Amino acid sequence: MAQAKSADPGLRTRRFIAAAAAGILLLAGAFAAGRITGPQVGTPDTTSAEAGFARDMQVHHQQAVELSMTVRDLTTDDEVRRLAFDIALGQSQGAGQLYGYLVEWKLPQNSPEPSMTWMARPGLDGATHSHGAAGSPAHVPGSPMPGLATPAQVAKLATLHGVEAERFYLTLMIAHHQGGIEMAQALLDRSIYPSVVGFARAMISVQTSEIQTMKAMLAARS
User: Is 127 helix (H, G, I), strand (E, B) or coil?
Assistant: First the structure.
């Protein structure tokens, strides 16, 4: 099957690379700004929203790296390969930053409670927030993280090639980013810790932009 091409794939790719580079700078700037200019707050403890977010978002980012590196071996399309490389690079750096937070706080990388427990707790305003589809229940501790691809979906991607792999990867990554944004917003509802709040805000901005880029790429391959 011939691979579908956008009207100007080079332009879209250049725009995505510029957005990815800006995103990395945003994350780095958020980290620095939080440490230098943010209000002083106590160090997060091991069951805090900050620690839970740092642990769970590492897992979330690591899957994005896995999906992105997988699709690079399944297509020869330069636009998708560059996109996948940029996502893998950005998410690897983000995971490393989150790992560093836990080291700085002298907290274990492994959680003492089920994943996503922090997201099921009330926010700073005392309310239990739901960031998924309208009317969806609050997150259940131990249930799959928002947007995380299932093992079956990961395995399916590895069986595809060419435009079929591109479409499936883009579909998975759009959902993956949407879930990541949901988690980042949940952190903002539960934290005033400067560096982590800055990380979450930058992440929402970057991934919202990337979602729009991926939707356009997916439409070009329909």
Answer: coil
Tell me if 131 is assigned to some domain. Answer: no
CA-CA distance, 96 to 157, in Å (whole number)? 25
Name the one residue in this structure whose structure tokens are 């579908």.
4
Question: In CATH, what number is assigned to the domain containing residue 20?
Answer: 1.20.1260.10
Q: How far apart are CA 215 and CA 222, in angstroms?
A: 11
Provide the whole-model pTM.
0.80
DSSP 185-207: HHHHTT---HHHHHHHHHHHHHH
Q: How far is CA 175 from the centre of its chain?
A: 10
Indicate whether 121 belongs to any domain: no
Q: Which residues constitute the domain of residue 180?
A: 9-38+46-111+143-220
Separation CA 69–CA 154 (nearest Å): 12
pLDDT tens-place values along the chain, 222 residues long: 434 444 454 444 444 444 444 454 455 454 444 444 445 468 999 999 999 999 999 999 999 999 999 999 999 999 999 999 999 999 999 999 999 999 999 999 999 999 999 999 999 988 776 555 444 556 789 999 999 999 999 999 999 999 999 999 999 999 999 999 999 999 999 999 999 999 999 999 999 999 999 999 999 998
Tell me if 69 is assigned to some domain.
yes
Within-domain flag for 125: no
- For residues 198 and 118, give the distance between their C-alpha atoms in angstroms, rounded to a whole number: 18
